Amino acid sequence: MTLVKNKYYIGIDVGGTKISGALITPRGIIISRKKISSPKKAKPQDIVHAIRELIKQLLKTPSSRKISLAGIGIGIPGIVDNTKKKVINTPNINLSSVALAPLLKRTFKTRVLLENDVNLGTLGEKTFGTAKHVHNVIGVFPGTGIGGGIIINDKLISGAHGAAGEIGHMVMDIHGPLCGCGHHGCLEALASRWAIERDIRQAIKQHKKTLIKKLTKNKLATIKSGVLKEALKKKDPLTIKIMAEKSKILGLACINLRRLFDPEMIVLGGGLTEACGDFMLPIIRKTVSEDRFFKKLRPCPVMPSKLGDDAVLLGAVALFKFVNTSS
Fold first, then answer.
1. pLDDT digits 0-9 by tens, 124-136
2. Across the strands, what pairs with 21?
3. Could you name the CATH architecture of 134-305?
C-alpha cells in the first residue's frame, strides 16, 4: 500500500502523561498539532473518549477545512495485536484488551491502525528522518524505559504476537538488578533513565558528592533527562561516571542487535538521547566500532533521531505505507 495523495492523515501518540496528535500530509508535513494530558486513574472508556476528542479538535482546526482524511495511526506504549486493531497490553495507561481501532473507525469513518509507539518512531525515522532510504534499520529509544523497533528489508518486524522489538528486556547480565518485568539484568534495568535515577540515589545514600541534589532541589524521586544534561554540562563527576557506564551498556546492546539483524543503521531516539546525546553517542559509537566480529564489514553508523518527539506522529502516517508488507 502507498500513501494516498491529496488526502491527509492523523497521527496520535498515546503516553502515560500526555496524548499528542497531529494532522499530517502524506509527505510528512505537520499541518496542525494538539496535545492533552492523559486522564489520570481513568477507565478505558475515558481514555478512548479523550483520544476521540483530540481527533475532533484536529479536524476542527482552520487548516483542516476541505481536507479529506485517509486514515488515523495511533502509537501505543505496549503490545498491539498483528491486525493493528486491538491493544493487547499496555502497563502505563489503562487500554489493555481494548479494540481501539474499531471504536474510532465507527466515529470517524476512516481506516484506523494501531502500533507500538517505538515501532512507529522507527518507521517515522525510516520514512521521513535520519534513516530515510535505508532498508535495514534498528531503532533504540532510551527514555524512562528502553524501547526498540526493527525494520528489515523494508518490513517492520512485529513477531508472532506483535511483541517483537522489546529490546529493553534483553537480558544483558543474569546477575544484574531486578527489572520491572520481573527478570534480572534486562537492558532497561541497566541503562534506562530509571536505572540512572536508581544508581544516583544509591550513590547519594553512600554520601557521594553530586550536583544532582542541588539541581533537583533534593527531590530525587524523579531525575529528568534535562537535569542529567545540566549535570553533564557542569561536569558533575558522579553523573559523568554513571552516564558513561550506561552509554557503554547501550553500545554493547547495539553490538548484540547488529549481530542479530545486520542493519545498515541504528537510530538512537527517545528523551534521554535527545537531552544527553552529545555525551552518550561518542561512547556508544566507540563501543560499536570496537566489535571485532564485524570488523571486515562496512561500518554500521549509530545516528541520532532527526524527528525527536514527532517521530511517533510521523510514523503513524508511515504505518499506512508499510502495514501490508509488515510481517
1. 999 999 999 899 9
2. 12, 34
3. 2-Layer Sandwich (3.30)
**Look-up: residue for cell 537510530?**
267
Rounded Cα distance, 86 and 103, in Å? 10
pLDDT in tens, 144-195: 899 999 999 999 998 888 889 999 999 999 999 999 889 999 999 999 999 9
Instruction: Look at the pTM and tell me if it is higher than 0.70.
Output: yes
d(CA 150, CA 322): 13
C-alpha 278/C-alpha 90 separation (Å) is 31
- Give the whole-angstrom CA distance, residue 321 versus residue 317: 8
Common-topology check for domains 8-126+310-325 and 134-305:
yes
CATH entry, 8-126+310-325, from 3.30.420.40, 3.40.50.10320, 3.50.30.70, 3.20.20.450 = 3.30.420.40
